[in-house]
Amino acid sequence: MSNQENESRNDTSDVKLWLRMLSCVKLIETDLRKKLRENFEFTLPRFDLLSQLQRHPEGIKMKELSRLMLVTDGNITSLVDGLEKMGLAERILNDQDRRSNYIKITPQGNELFELISIEHKKWLDGLLKNINPQDKALLYDLLSTLKNSLTKE
């Protein structure tokens, strides 16, 4: 095989790798979205937001939520509005900067998050049950290497 053929093959393998990762993520997300909707009448973005709020019990700024969740400020505002109406999150005025609020999970939000988290773990365990623990560890390490290389660029 010539160098040119080998380079072309490697280019294709990068594309194939990307497409394989994307298809796996989409399959998992689709399944999780369906189960959240059917079992809890809840959405994946709302669950993700509750997860972030649960990690910051003292509250977190909207801008920081946008950054952590990789979504626009407008999306966060809409998600927070929805959780607030459901009694799962609350806005707290920032004494240092009255233009910004902290968002905090409520006790009801914590309860629901804990309940959904138990099921979420079971669903993921079911989706990944055919991968042995050693392969999971290897995949985790490989994806960590990829993430680290991407965040350095």
Automatic annotation (TrEMBL):
It comes from the Bacteria. One of its GO terms (molecular function) is DNA-binding transcription factor activity. Residues 14-148 form the HTH marR-type domain. GO terms for biological process: response to stress. SUPFAM superfamilies: Winged helix' DNA-binding domain. This is MarR family transcriptional regulator.
